[in-house]
Amino acid sequence: MPDRGRMTVACSHHRAVPVESGGAVVAALCPDCDQQLPAEWLTCSHIATVDVTGLGQRHAQRRCLGCGAQYSERG
Ligand SMILES: [Zn+2]
Ligand SMILES: [Zn+2]
Q1: Nearest ligand atom owner, CA of 70
Q2: Looking at the CA of 68, which ligand is closest?
Q3: Reduced 3-state DSSP string for 12-73
Q4: Annotated domain spans of the chain
Q5: Residue 4: its pLDDT value, please?
Q6: pLDDT at position 59, please?
Protein backbone atom coordinates (compact mmCIF):
# COMPACT_ATOMS: atom_id res chain seq x y z
CA MET A 1 0.00 0.00 0.00
CA PRO A 2 1.30 3.48 -0.78
CA ASP A 3 2.19 5.74 2.09
CA ARG A 4 -0.08 8.73 1.61
CA GLY A 5 1.36 10.70 4.48
CA ARG A 6 4.66 11.49 2.82
CA MET A 7 5.60 14.34 0.56
CA THR A 8 8.02 12.16 -1.34
CA VAL A 9 6.62 10.38 -4.33
CA ALA A 10 8.39 7.55 -6.10
CA CYS A 11 6.06 7.60 -9.04
CA SER A 12 6.03 9.25 -12.43
CA HIS A 13 2.20 9.18 -12.65
CA HIS A 14 2.30 7.84 -16.19
CA ARG A 15 -1.08 6.18 -15.81
CA ALA A 16 -2.95 9.07 -14.23
CA VAL A 17 -6.60 9.22 -15.24
CA PRO A 18 -9.03 12.16 -15.38
CA VAL A 19 -11.36 12.84 -12.45
CA GLU A 20 -14.59 14.30 -13.80
CA SER A 21 -17.24 16.27 -12.02
CA GLY A 22 -20.30 17.55 -13.82
CA GLY A 23 -18.79 16.72 -17.19
CA ALA A 24 -15.61 18.69 -16.60
CA VAL A 25 -12.19 17.37 -15.74
CA VAL A 26 -11.43 18.78 -12.31
CA ALA A 27 -8.33 16.78 -11.40
CA ALA A 28 -6.26 13.76 -12.24
CA LEU A 29 -5.72 10.69 -10.11
CA CYS A 30 -2.76 8.35 -10.32
CA PRO A 31 -3.81 4.73 -9.80
CA ASP A 32 -0.26 3.68 -9.01
CA CYS A 33 0.39 5.94 -6.03
CA ASP A 34 -3.19 7.12 -5.36
CA GLN A 35 -2.12 10.74 -5.51
CA GLN A 36 -4.38 13.49 -6.77
CA LEU A 37 -2.80 15.71 -9.39
CA PRO A 38 -3.83 18.95 -11.06
CA ALA A 39 -6.08 18.53 -14.09
CA GLU A 40 -3.37 20.31 -16.06
CA TRP A 41 -1.18 17.25 -15.53
CA LEU A 42 -3.09 15.42 -18.24
CA THR A 43 -2.42 17.94 -20.97
CA CYS A 44 0.94 19.28 -19.82
CA SER A 45 4.07 18.07 -21.58
CA HIS A 46 6.21 18.80 -18.51
CA ILE A 47 8.96 20.50 -20.45
CA ALA A 48 9.97 23.02 -17.81
CA THR A 49 10.79 21.30 -14.54
CA VAL A 50 12.92 21.98 -11.50
CA ASP A 51 14.76 19.51 -9.31
CA VAL A 52 13.21 19.57 -5.86
CA THR A 53 14.96 16.52 -4.46
CA GLY A 54 15.50 16.97 -0.76
CA LEU A 55 18.38 15.76 1.35
CA GLY A 56 18.10 12.07 2.08
CA GLN A 57 15.34 11.46 -0.42
CA ARG A 58 15.75 8.16 -2.15
CA HIS A 59 14.25 9.14 -5.49
CA ALA A 60 14.91 12.22 -7.57
CA GLN A 61 11.96 14.58 -7.34
CA ARG A 62 10.98 17.08 -9.97
CA ARG A 63 8.30 19.73 -9.98
CA CYS A 64 6.74 20.79 -13.24
CA LEU A 65 6.44 24.54 -13.65
CA GLY A 66 3.64 24.06 -16.16
CA CYS A 67 1.13 22.05 -14.15
CA GLY A 68 2.63 22.38 -10.68
CA ALA A 69 2.72 18.64 -10.00
CA GLN A 70 5.59 16.85 -8.34
CA TYR A 71 6.77 13.49 -9.53
CA SER A 72 9.68 11.09 -9.55
CA GLU A 73 11.88 10.61 -12.56
CA ARG A 74 11.95 6.91 -11.92
CA GLY A 75 9.83 4.78 -14.23
ZN1 LIG B 1 1.67 8.21 -9.28
ZN1 LIG C 1 3.49 19.42 -16.17
Answers
A1: 2
A2: 2
A3: CCCCCEEEEECCEEEEEECCCCCCEEEHHHHCCCCCCEEECCCCCCCCCEEEECCCCCEEEC
A4: 17-72
A5: 47
A6: 86
DSSP annotation of 5? T
**Ligand 2 centroid, distance to 66 Cα (angstroms):** 5
Q: Which residues in the chain show pLDDT less than 70?
A: 1-9, 74-75
pTM of this structure: 0.79
How far is ligand 1, taken at its centre, from the CA of residue 23, in Å?
A: 24
Distance from the alpha carbon of residue 31 to the mean position of ligand 1, in angstroms: 7
